[in-house]
Amino acid sequence: MELEAWRTALVREIERAAEWRAEKAVADPEDTRLADSQKALYSLAEQVKALPSDDAELNALYKEEAELAELQRATVGEPEARYHDAKEDLLGAYGIDHAPFDTADGFLKVLRNRVDETITEYRLRA
User: Fold this and answer.
1) pLDDT digits (tens, 9 = 90+) for 69-99
2) Distance between CA atoms of 115 and 84, rounded to whole angstroms?
3) Cα angle at 104 between 119 and 81, to 5 degrees?
């Protein structure tokens, strides 16, 4: 997958998390954290869209996510699924249990740490 297609998919994941948050906000209108979280997620999606193609964090995460599919000692798809779950957990907590990031690069750095943890785990398997 090329960088721009990958970025579009990442933005879409963030937007889906915001849409899910909107559904929860309708169900519980008194919890103002839900609406705040939704706004923060949409803002994050816009920030990721606005990053230049040569952004260092964006490119590093893109390359590291691609490495997941190349890992040895792993069941096909398992590292990607584990990382996907970690990303979903972060997006689910965003703006509620996890404060919004000041910049999109802060978000990308956290995702890179999650990818690195997954890669390291599989590389250390005997």
Assistant:
1) 887 777 887 888 889 999 999 999 999 999 9
2) 9
3) 30
Give the C-alpha separation, 81 to 65, whole Å. 11
CB within 8 A of 101, min separation 6: which ones?
A: 44, 107, 110
Whether the CB-CB separation of 98 and 39 falls below 8 Å is answered with: no
- Its pTM stands at 0.88
Q: Residue 98: helix, strand or coil by DSSP?
A: strand
CB contact at 8 A, 11 and 48: yes
Are 62 and 3 a contacting pair, CB within 8 Å? yes
Q: Are 28 and 77 in contact (CB under 8 A)?
A: no
Closest to 62 in 3D by CA, of 24, 20, 103, 108 = 108
Give ∠ CA 57-61-67 in degrees, rounded to 5.
150
Q: In this structure, which amino acid lies at residue 92?
A: G
Distance CA 90, CA 75 (A): 24
Burial class (CB in 10 A: 0-12, 13-18, 19+), 37: buried
